[in-house]
Amino acid sequence: MSFLKFILKNPFRRKNSAILAIVGIAIGIIVIVALGGITDGLVNTFEDTIHAGGADFSISGKETGDSAYGTNTIDANWTDKIANVSGVDEAYPIYVVLTSVGDDYMNTLIGIDPNGTTLADISMKEGRIMKDNESEAILGEIYAEDNNYSIGDNIKIDGEDFEVVGIYETGDQNMAGGVFTSISKVGDLMDDEDSISNIYVKVKKGEDPQTVADRIDEKYGDNITTVTSVMEMTQMADMLNMLQASTWAISLLAIVVGGLGIINTMLMSVFERTREIGVLKAVGWSDRKILTMIVGESLVITIVSAIIGSIIGFLACTLLSPYMGISPLFTPKIFIQAFAIAIVVGIIGGLYPAIKAVKLPPTEALRYE
Length: 369
Fold this sequence. Notes:
55% of the residues lie in helices and 19% in strands. It contains 12 helices and 12 strands. It has helices at 3-9, 15-50, 78-83, 141-147, 173-176, 183-190, 209-220, 230-272, 274-282, 287-324, 332-358, 362-367; strands at residues 57-61, 74-75, 88-101, 104-112, 123-127, 136-140, 154-157, 160-169, 179-182, 195-196, 198-203, 224-227. Strands 1, 3, 4, 5, 6, 7, 8, 9, 11 and 12 form a 10-stranded mixed beta sheet that branches. Strands 2-10 form a two-stranded antiparallel sheet. A hairpin with a 2-residue loop joins β7 (154-157) and β8. The protein is elongated.
């Protein structure tokens, strides 16, 4: 029998001890895999939630002006510059003006790309989004109720007839009293297609909005300014950090428990095989070969445990998650981490008993009962 086959088969000569060791370590691996999947799922869901709808921050001109948003307009080409900054997922300009709307001599008219309305944090209550460069408008629900407008009505904006194609709702009371149309149409009305008021920015998933905002400030801070809700972002970052720290704390506990289990198992194995080790030394096995054998046997047990624990952890979490109302997310990183931990625990857990074994004098080992 080759040395490798000897190492692979030897741990299972004492089936009960091997099974107990595998069960103990596999429980730790199950905890690591299951909690890793649950935590990654929670983090993924949390990130989806905080990045769903609404811009992460907005950008405006550096100087205070007399526009509807109290800032100077900026050149429309800033949108492409911002969109190309690393970490930016979407960037849409808005053009906010005060002009005659319906019976109001002066009201807020907001121009936006129809594809970017989700960044304005509005949702359609009735009807649809206006089309680009068409004489169509959507009204905030407060404005529509106060002025008795409904879908299909015409509304005069800056002297031009627009069709009301939708009623939107929003948590922003000021925006609920406003009117949206396409930004190209606002440019036509104002005879100024090269200016915008602000840029709504959404960052890529996994990116920190504050970091991206700082990156933009560093690059273009002399000309524009970013407006962020720092406190909200800090709270989000803290929650994500707490989730990830909890995973590592539980994983560390599982590593300690698994490590102690394998050390205990291999120590018992060495004590039970003291006479066998003495015989191996007597027939000429070197200390290095005996040390390799015991560490190798330890690795065999932990790798088998990692395979069983990973399968059970994945299946248990997948089958039970619908009843717990969670959506686990299993990435290769979780399984690589579980196997890496099993291998490290196997080496450390087998090393101490192996050192004790090689220090045994052959004559004393042979007399051991």
